Amino acid sequence: MTGPGEGTPLLEISGLRVELPHRSAGMVPAVDGVDLHVGRGEVLGVAGESGSGKTMTALATLGLLPHGARTSGSIRLAGRDLLGLPARQLRDVRGKEVAMVAQDPRTALHPMLTVERQLTEHLRHHHGVGRRAARAEAEELLDQVRIPDPGKALARYPHEFSGGMRQRIAIASALAGRPELLIADEPTTALDVTVQAGILRLLDRLRRERGLAVLIITHDLGVLSSLADRLVVMYAGRVVETGTTAEVLTAARHPYTRGLLDALPEGGTATMRPIPGSPPALGAVPAGCPFHPRCAHARESCRQQVPPLLEIGPARESACPVDPYAPVPLQEVR
Amino acid sequence: MSILTATDVEVTYPGAGSPVRAVAGVDLAVEAGEVLGLVGESGCGKSSLARALVGLVSPSAGTVTFAGEPVQALRRRARPRAQRRLQMVFQDPYSSLNPRRRVGAQISDAIRLSGGRTGSDRVGALLERVGLDPAMATRYPHEFSGGQRQRIAVARALAADPSVIVADEPISALDASAQAQVANLLVGLAKEEGVAVVFISHDLAIVRQVADRTAVMYLGTIAEVGPTATLWNDPRHPYTQALIAAVPTPDGSGLLPADLPGDVPDPSAPPPGCRFHPRCPVVQAECPTWEPVLRLQGPGHRAACVLAPDLEAAGVPVGAR
Questions:
Q1: What's the rounded Cα separation, in Å, for the pair B302 and B251?
Q2: Could you give the percent of chain A with pLDDT greater than 90?
Q3: How does DSSP assign B221-268, residue by residue?
Q4: Residue A49: its chain B contacts at CB < 8 A?
Q5: pTM here?
Q6: DSSP one-letter code for A309
Q7: At what angle do helices B176-193 and A255-262 cross, to 10 degrees?
Q8: A50 touches chain B (CB under 8 A)
Q9: Shortest Cα distance from B261 to chain A (angstroms)?
């Protein structure tokens, strides 16, 4: 079987641990032993609530962690370890090989530079494209993210656009450097569904036509369902479930994934069932399985030991030894 | 009698060039105990309409009534006593709460302003009503998560014993499970205490879940309104159909949602005729010349499209209006 993601992965994160300085508790882990990989042309979705370590994993990949953060493990891009790379070389990786779209469009664009400057500098700097050709490519990108009148938009400044349009320009600017890997952190959360649909279709086309690999982080399982090949579900800095998108969404095995799915609106008149409680704060992660205080299936053993990620099928893992949703073996059905 | 009504409401802002008509003639009635969903893309005028409904902006034409009395636009004085039971919850619980005052004190203020008896038991009861521990009254807003803060904002609105809550994108800044908690809380207020809730959101999936009726806005006007299930299963306006098709479903099927090209046009220069015609996938020859009005499609279901013929004119009995 060959397909996207086969062979050497473009991005391979293993044993990633990110510790952040905390007001009173010293260094606290925000990411605690995360493994994941993304192949060329593959879309990997990372799901989870805020505080699950999704964003810190992304920032670590780009070398953009907050000041004072400590990392260990490895992050390999096309075989090269990014964690050991000097700042200057990492800067070349960013923009040229890996680009990021963040949730907040206010901080993604430089307020004092025109859209043209922000969309063409990657091309001119990293790829040696001439001014005229870069401008044409930027115009094309703006058109693809559905900015009306792209020619005129190039001469304008970010503040002249609405929040939704700025986010689309930020997406265009991330794609402008023709990256191999796009890291998108809640890229469409603030956008209207109509615009979101356009962006999802654009990313899908770039993946098919150009082999763009995408690491998309969002709590919106609908977005992940339409775009991602595989899913990684994170909770409190750890991976709790992995598998193909279809497997995870239709036959979730970890109680946290089930909880996320049950919290979704599904039509009809029933109210949504939220997961009780809130995710733990940084530095206040409970002992044992970090999800046990919110879990309806928790047992005594869940309070004692951190459950490892267990293989439950081909390329399918879950970190729940209780496994309350396991398919019942046939002989037991009788 | 409807608790909150809007009649031919227009909201106009002075623009750099021509004035911007953000709301261009909206009729709406909200009943006690119902959740009315208001959906549409950004720039469709739903927030302007919400602000007009609670008197935060003064309509440039038309009237809003609350409990039979016209809603007066808020000035620098306190809200008129008669309108205190008309409350609003905003999108961002980070900016709607005072960061330097304890949450109990902020709820206490709201009780006092509405003429009620203040005291820690009343504050505690309100916190409990929104699913928070009464002991949390002594904490500051930064000690809470986004979902908890939004529940505190709802508790503060509840201090006035409201009969209407207008909630403008109350859950779009929250995490999925916090979204469900706040949405369920608002639905509970409608179902258990008879509060009318106007629930404004760009997230159609949530509105489908919580709203009894849904109104779809496009460029300052209502394109379609009806019982949520009817509107969702049998949308008559092409704009409603496009919005529904654009919602991605978390079913693992890998299907991409359908695209609706283009943007909501500049409200200072709306297209002639039907406002949706430049983006409409089924546009007809007459659409650029003729502005459709809302016509009856079924019980309580109206749509403004030339392709959605009038049941009334056709003489079809449609039951309760």
A1: 31
A2: 56
A3: EEEEEEEHHHHHHS--SHHHHHHHHTSPP-SS--PPPPP--S-PPPTT
A4: 175-177
A5: 0.87
A6: P
A7: 50
A8: yes
A9: 8
Contact between A193 and B247 using a beta-carbon 8 Å cutoff: yes
Tell me the three-class secondary structure of B202-226, residue by residue.
CCHHHHHHHCCEEEEEECCEEEEEE
Which stretches does DSSP call E strand in chain A? 11-22, 26-38, 43-47, 70-77, 80-81, 98-101, 181-185, 213-217, 230-235, 238-244, 310-313, 316-318
DSSP state of A276: S
Better-scored residue on pLDDT, B141 or B16: B141
- DSSP readout, A207-225? HHHH--EEEEE-S-HHHHH
Average pLDDT over residues B188-203: 93
B93-127 confidence digits (pLDDT tens): 888 899 999 999 999 998 988 777 777 788 999 99
Over residues B5-14, the mean pLDDT reads 94
Contact yes or no for A249 and B250 at CB 8 A: yes
Q: How far is CA B106 from CA A126, A237, B113, B136, in A?
A: 53, 35, 11, 12
A245 → closest Cβ in B177, B203, B252: B252
Shortest Cα distance from B259 to chain A (angstroms)?
5
Please state at what angle helix A193-210 crosses helix B238-245, rounded to 10 degrees.
50
Find, in chain A, the residue whose alpha carbon is nearest to that of B239: A194
Q: Do B248 and A226 touch (CB under 8 A)?
A: yes
The CATH code of domain A11-89+219-312+319-333 reads 3.40.50.300
B171's tokens: 């859950």
ipTM: 0.82
At B320, the pLDDT band (50, 70, 90 cuts) reads: very low
Cβ pair A261:B250 closer than 8 A: yes
Instruction: Specify whether the CB–CB gap between A246 and A315 falls below 8 A.
Output: no
Give yes or no for A123 touching B (CB within 8 A). Answer: no
Cβ-in-10-Å burial (0-12, 13-18, 19+) of B249 comes to middle
The model's confidence at residue A270, banded by pLDDT at 50, 70 and 90, is: low
Q: Which residues 124-163 of A have a C-beta within 8 angstroms of B?
A: 146, 148, 162-163
pLDDT tens per residue, range B144-176: 888 889 999 999 999 989 999 999 999 887 777
Contact map slice: A 4-43 vs B, CB within 8 A: none
**CA separation for the pair B208, A96 (Å, rounded):** 42
Domain ranges for chain A: 11-89+219-312+319-333
d(CA A303, CA A171): 43
> What is the C-alpha end-to-end distance of chain A, expressed in Å?
35
